Every structure is written in C-alpha cells, then in structure tokens.
C-alpha cells in the first residue's frame, strides 16, 4: 500500500514503541505523548483508512510498507519545511550514535508462539489476570520438574501477545548475564544490554526460570524485584521500568531443596 513519508515515520515509530506485530487502542493512547516527543504524526490513519487488518476486537495487525507516495493520504499539518525536516533528521541521527548495542526492536518480537493443543490448568487464569492488569506484581511459581510451570507462563503471554524474556538461572548466572556487559565488536568495546534491562525498557515480563539454583551473584536484582529503577554502574545509566513490566519466577522447591540431592544445580 502507498503511504506518505510522514505516515511511514509514524508507523515505524509506533511499531517500535509497541514492540509487537499487532496493536490495540490502549497502545495508541499510550503512544500519543510519545509521538509528540518524537515529532511524528499520530497513527490514526492505521484504523480510520482501513490500512490495518483487524485480528480481534480492538486489535489490529501492523501493515507492511510496500512504498510511499509524494502526497499524504491523510491531511496533516505540514507547516514544517522539507529543509527544516531534513536538518532535524540529521540532528536526531547524530544524537542516536552510541556505543550501546540494542535488541532489534522493529524486526524481532519476543512474544512466545502458541502451542496447538495446549490445555490450560492450575493457576492459569490467575497468572493471566495478573499479566493482563499491566501492574507490577511479581509472582513465584513452584512445582516438580516437568509439570508445566514455564509453559503455562509462555502460553499466557502468547495468548495476550505480550513479550516475555526468559532467563534460565544456574549457579554461575551473574550480573553480566542479567544486566549487561561490555563486549568486543568489530574492534570496539561496546555495551550490550542484558535481558533484565531489555525487559524493563520494553514493559515486558522477566521470567527467572529455576531461580532457586542461583547464588548470591544475582543480588543485583534487588531493585528490579522491588519495581524500582535500576542503576547500571558500569554505564552510569538509570533504567526505569516501563508500564507493563513485571517479574515471574519458577522453581522446583520453595527454596528448601531436598536431602536426596534431586535439586542440585
């Protein structure tokens, strides 16, 4: 379909903000103030002009961009000259140059895939209610290995189309694995965010799988588990949890282990 340059910019910014292949009316409302900050038009044309395929009640699929047109499809305020726009774009590009490597927000989604034939059981409805609320409400799920703790969480997020960052905890898991670390890329030392940082910034769920196998090396998660901002000491950067972020943890026992050694990590 043909879109104007402004509509393409708005669509790209909105899709990056949502971090998914679909969007809802709530996503649109939350994006309004962000659009003003980013200097893009509101993506109301996605709904009004049937640009987007409706996949459910109040939910649409982002359209594919096959081309752009010279004239806008929806009339918007075009008082800004092309020269000013180009200058602002160059300035914005310069400001975005950084030594931080981020996950590709436009090309990859962290929404789990649905499993055909999956049967809901146990506290499925309770966990779904918690995630659907959008509130920060950490939960701890225990049960013997193989009873479906992790899959239940994954399928809830697949049903709600919410992003999930799963971290498999071992006794060796430390701050570098969780928060981030420096790495050598193309001869440069650059910072790479870890799953905890990405989950907080995207408003996703952080799943700490088999958390009872961890050592004191994960004490860096204390502010995260409290729902507070996280200070990345090596970067001097403060990460504030976005709305929708929460933490879910799974374990085989309630932290007590067993005398027969079945739960040694």
TrEMBL record:
Pfam families documented for this protein: AAA_5
One Gene Ontology biological process: ribosomal large subunit assembly
Keywords: ATP-binding, Nucleotide-binding
GO annotations of cellular component type: nucleus; preribosome, large subunit precursor
The keyword Heme appears for this protein: no
Entry GO MF terms: ATP binding; ATP hydrolysis activity
Location of the ATPase dynein-related AAA domain: 139-258
Protein name: ATPase dynein-related AAA domain-containing protein
């Amino acid at each position: 379909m043909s879109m104007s340059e402004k509509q393409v910019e708005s669509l790209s910014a909105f899709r990056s903000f949502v971090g998914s292949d679909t969007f809802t009316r709530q996503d649109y409302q939350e994006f309004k103030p962000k659009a003003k900050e980013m200097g893009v038009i509101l993506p109301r044309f996605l709904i009004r002009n049937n640009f987007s395929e409706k996949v459910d009640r109040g939910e649409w699929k982002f359209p594919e961009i096959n081309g752009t047109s010279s004239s806008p499809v929806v009339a918007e305020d075009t008082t800004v000259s092309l020269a000013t726009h180009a200058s602002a774009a160059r300035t914005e590009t310069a400001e975005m140059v950084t030594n931080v490597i981020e996950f590709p927000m436009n090309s990859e989604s962290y929404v789990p895939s649905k499993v055909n034939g999956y049967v809901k059981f146990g506290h499925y409805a309770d966990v779904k209610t918690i995630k659907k609320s959008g509130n920060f409400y950490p939960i701890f799920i225990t049960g013997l290995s193989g009873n479906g703790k992790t899959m239940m969480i994954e399928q809830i997020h697949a049903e709600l189309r919410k992003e999930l960052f799963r971290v498999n905890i071992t006794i060796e898991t430390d701050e570098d694995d969780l928060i981030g670390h420096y790495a050598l890329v193309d001869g440069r030392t650059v910072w790479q965010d870890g799953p905890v940082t990405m989950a907080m910034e995207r408003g996703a769920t952080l799943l700490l799988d088999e958390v009872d196998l961890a050592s004191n090396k994960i004490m860096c998660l204390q502010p995260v588990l409290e729902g507070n901002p996280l200070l990345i000491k090596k970067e001097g950067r403060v990460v504030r949890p976005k709305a929708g972020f929460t933490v879910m943890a799974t374990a085989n026992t309630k932290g007590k282990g067993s005398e027969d050694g079945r739960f040694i990590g």
